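User: C-alpha cells for EamA family transporter, please.
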Amino acid sequence: MDRSPRTGIGFALLCLGILGALPILANARPAGSAGLTFAVWLTFWQLVASLPLFGAEILRARSADPLGRLVQACRGRSGLIALVTGAMFGGSTYMYVVAAERAGPVSLAIALQAYPVFATLVERLFLGKRKSGAELFFTALMIAALVYLTTEGTFRVADISWWTVFALGIPLLWSVAHIMLKRVLETTPATPNQVTVSRLVVSGGCLLVLAMVIGDGAGLLAAGIDPSFQRAAIVMGVAYYLELILWFHAMRHIDVSLASSVTVPAPAVTMLLAVLVLGDSLQTYQLLAMALIAAGMYGLVLTGGRGERTSEPPTARPERPGNRPRA
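Assistant: Done. Predicted C-alpha cells:
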C-alpha cells in the first residue's frame, strides 16, 4: 500500500468531530448505572457495528479466503499482540467511562491530548525514531501544560487532581497499543476492520470476565433491557467504532504521533458541547492548558508533517506483502 500523508490526515480529521463528542456521550448513561457495565455494553455495540463491513469484506474477497488469512495473521507473535492490545483496549475503555464521570468531560478531553507525547516517547523507545529539537520543544511544552492541568493551575503537588492523572493512563495505553497494532497492519494481510473485530472480541471478553468477577452480573443483565441505558450504549459504541476504524486507516498513511496531532481541536469541541448540552462552566486553568497543548500539538503537526513529507523518495515504493492495497 502506497502511503499518502494527505489521505491519512483526511482520515484523522474525520476522527476530530467524533473525538470531541465522545467524552459527552460517555456521560450520557443513566445516573447510578455502573461504569463497568456501560463499558461492556458499549463494547458489544462496537462489535455489532463492525460486523456489516466485516461481512462485506468476506463476501468481496471470498476467493482469497479472508477468514483463513485472518486466522493466519493472528498466529504466533501477531496473535499475542492481538491478545495483549485487546486487553489494553478493554481496560482503556473502562477507564474512559470512569474518567468522564470523575474527572469531567472537559478535563478528560484535554488529558487525552497527551497521546502524541506518549506516542513520541514510545516511538523513540521501541521504534528508534529520532525527534528533532523543535519536536522535543513542543513535546516539553505539552508536558508542562499537562502538569498545569493536573494541578488545577497551581503547579503544586498538593493540588494534583488524581482523577485527571488517572485519565492520562488512557492515552498511554492507546499509544502503546496502536503502535503495536501498526506493525501488525503493515506486515499482515488483515484489514483494519478485521483487526478491529478481533480486538473487540478480546477486549469485550476481558471486560465481561471482569464484570462477572468484580461487578454485578444481575446488573449487567438488567442493563440489557433498560431502553435508556441501551440507547446511550448504542450511540457511544457506534461512535467509538467509527473513530477506531478511521484511526486505523489513518495510521496506514502517517505516523501515529502526526495522526493524533491532527485532532488538536477535539477538546474545544468538547468544551462547546459541555457548555451547551451539560451547562458546565469552564475553568481558567482548563482554557490555558488547552491553549498551551494546542500550541504544542500544532508545532508537532508542522515539524512532524515536514519530516513525513521528506522521509520517502518521490518514486513509488515496491509492493511487498503487507504493503499491497487491501480489499
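User: Anything notable?

Assistant: The chain is about 75% helix and 0% strand.
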